[in-house]
Amino acid sequence: MEETLRNLLEEAKKELSSAENLKTLEEIRVKYLGKKGELTKILRGMGNLSHDERPIIGKISNDVREEIEKELTQKREEVLWQEKEKKIKSEYIDITLPGKVHEIGHKHPMTKVLDEIKDIFLGLGFSIAEGPEIELDYYNFEALNTPPDHPARDLQDTFYITKNILLRTQTSPVQVRTMEKSKPPIKVISPGRVYRSDEIDATHSPVFNQIEGLAVDEGITMGDLKGVLNLFAKRLFGSDTKTKFRPHYFPFTEPSAEMDVSCFACGGKGCRVCGYSGWIEILGSGMVHPNVLRMSGIDPEKYSGFAFGMGLDRITMLKYGIDDLRLLYENDLRFIKQF
Amino acid sequence: MLISYSWLKDYVDLSVDAKKLADDLTMSGSKVETVKSYGQEIKNVVIGKIVSLEKHPDALKLQIGIVDVGKEKLQIVTGAQNIKVGDYIPVALHGSTLPGGVKIKRGKLRGVESNGMMCSAKELGLDESLLPEYQRNGIFILPELPLGDDVRDVLELDDVIEFEITPNRPDCLSVVGIAREAAATYRKSYRMPEIKISEVDDKNPATVTIEADDLCFRYVARVIRNAKIGPSPMWMQMRLLKAGIRPINNIVDVTNYVMMELGQPLHAFDLDKVKNRHIVVRRAKEGERLITLDDKERILDKDMLVIADEEKAIGLAGVMGGQNTEITDDTVNILIESANFKGSNIRYTSRKLGLRSEASSRFEKGLDPEITVLACNRAAQLMAELSGGEILEGLVDVYPKPVTEKVLSVRYERINKLLGTNLSCQEMKEILSFLDFGTICDDKNLIVKVPAFRGDVDGEADIAEEIGRMYGYNNIEDTLLKGTQITAGVKTREQKLEDTVKDVFLSCGLNEVITTSFMGMKDLDKINLPDDSYLRNAVKIMNPLGEDQGYMRTTLLPFMLNVVCTNYSRKVSEFKAFEISKVFVPKSLPLEELPDEIKSGIIAMYGHDVDFLTIKGVIEELLDVLNIKNVKYVRSQNPAYHPGRSADVIVGDEKICVFGELNPDVAENYDINKRVYISEVNLELLFKHANDEKVYKPLPRYPAVERDIAVLVDKSTFVADIENVIRKAGGQLVDDVKLFDVYEGENIPEDKKSVAFSIWYRSYDKTLTDEEVSKVHDKIVNRLSEELGAQLR
Ligand SMILES: [Zn+2]
Asked: Strand (E) positions, A232-291?
């Protein structure tokens, strides 16, 4: 009987070694270990054994069962692994096929640049203020130290609605509106549309976008103006960017300055983008004129501040190398989708 | 303003080159646009005189000239016809170069030897349009000049600097003004032109009366007798040419020359044409007529200032002289006007008549009345020198209210605080003195005497700017708002919601477009807008660019349709776009207060997989993200939309959105031969209903039971109505309802459709039994049948 058991084990091992799939393995398991399997059949003959032989044969038959089970488990793992391998091999695909895209929309390039600018200034503690595009002459000019017969009015061809109502020519009126309704410390930027009576061409549009900035508090200096705008330029155009402040004139700031940045296209060596000067004019700025502070209800003896303004259209064109302003308002989706 | 470097050097000693000067002046406040180098490329071009001229034997259009160039006489062939024997001309010798790198070599023209070239003004790089005709058509004919001299020297072909002077600094619209800035920039001194007047014994016969002393602050005049009119000398003509001013004659040229030199516009009248030699400065009569020097008749109004004699207007004050007293070749006696007018009035006249001149552009900025005498004397001196005339004794000077000296007391502490500098009073004093400010320091204050030509300087901030720009803005140390209070940069609720809306649109595949704000009434016709629509009450622009851009837009639709049209016509096959912008709705017309500016959104799409449900999906997504519940969709009456394929979105009582297929008529108006889906969203109402508050609801702990239901209903029944009945009848146990099929056609009666839903039943307290579910489900079936006549399939 012992021998029969050993033969059974050998036989089972042999069958197992040639088994190739889970189905065969299961058949082998049923054949040897099942309720009606070979081992059971053999054990049924245990009754004929002597009292002494029983435990011995019992142990042997247990060992055989365990052995077959162990082999079965091992083999099953092996087969499973092979089957997985095989399946994976059969599933190879052409990974260069185009992807299934859920196309998401693209922001207008001006919005992309504006978002970047907003992020920079939000991080510097500036909030975002908005104001009307159809504006009172008072806010657009008078409160900005530009009374009716001021020569600076000549520089801006204004669209009028009535004698006192106009389309704002700059975002600066938001400065005044902000100062009128809040107390220092004030730090805001104000993006928005502005209007000037220019026919549309490659560099002009009667409707365009500006971003205004204003900081008012005790002890703000021209050094602060330079520091903040220099930091801004480095964030927007890259950390190698250099800035240069040139004296200029705006009725509502004194002292006033224009800021140039080193050309980000050529690094300052001179190219077509910068008109071979190495510098690009980016924004106008200055210390808020005491008259403007006073008219907005802020005491210029106690507070000082700086303001700046820049053209979003122009910066967008420079940043992306767009050579015709009209592209920004034409909205060919093949253009928009490039950004 | 254009100034040649050699002219500038008459008043200040400078050793830097023009490029460096341009950079330094730009950084100290006088912005340079360009530097043009006239003589740079010219080599070996000299003055010559034509000794003889004969016809070329073999070419009708050519002439053979013998030209004396000093050390030799050269045979030169030319095609020019404006020359004659005795003319002085520029000659490019063999081996010379001209602007643009042109090289001139000896050669043969139709078999005749030519040893160089006679040059036109254009070939020397000059602007011919400013030259008189005899110098313009062909060779640049010159006055008598030393033969063989280099043209670069005798014509002063040097560097010309173009300045962009800001309107607050009319004093810098002059060579002396720039010399002063250059001197201060380099901390050196400048000099004024030396003026020597030798009057003859006869008394000046002219008199001046200022009737409008609110518009004319000073009138200075002198009389020159026995002048001989002729061309001015070449050096003066060249300086004017380089400044962009047309040379005319020795009298007019002097007035322009002195204006450029000192910044004071002058005018010369033919005194013999001034009635009784009496100048009257008065307001024009309403409708008074005057022919100005440009031969145009001007109709004046009573707010304009004229220079008149006892009978008639003879000049438009500060803008342009009158033809009736113009200097002609026959003029003998001249009155020089050097006056000061009110800037805003000159600006008014100039704008009203559409007539700008070098004079008006200076006067309108407000000039210094103190310089009038100096300018008048300078002009008298030069006219006498150049025309051989005599200066009569006595200067007329009518100056009703002389200006008083402006003295400011500023705190140098405060200036340092504004600039972020640490300058001593002495340092400030030094900077200011180079700019001709008189200064005294005391322990706290800097007492500043403002020079008369600096009308722009009024207070501490102005003085700070003078000090700052000469100290150098770029020498001020950068700081980052040290010592100020910290602020948080925040967006408002509306700004954040606008960002959210944009994000939803973008993630739905819509691309952002930006259009302009001006519309015409035709744009509204094109979108089928009814005649009585309130959107036709648009804000009108008084001075629009054109009729089609005469109003501020009340709707974004025509603009978006133009974008659709552009893309469609350019064969863009898939189109999905949105715009968020303002529309302008007046409270009343004509405008008395500012109109409402309403943030609006618009969507448009076309393409192979785009239909009504695509655009509705975007709207549903938007409402879901903004957490807006209890939304009703009703058929829209909006005439821009397809009546059967459009809906208004109602929240509460308010219509926050309309969407659907574009009305085919409107599509046709825009030549779009495709189904276009659009939606217009009132963002302000959307934001009003947006629900920012989200409260956590526990996840279900018991399973849901799914049952499907398919019913036959009338074709016209809204799916939403069926769903409503299901939800109402099912009550709290209905956890979710989803439409999964709508079918019309085979096996369905013609006026019916089959609609199928999945219903999920769930209790949050226990696992539902089959019986409990069936009870509710049956109730739903009954209710559908009762309310909508639905038959179970
Ligand atoms: Zn560059």
From this structure: 243-250, 253-262, 279-288
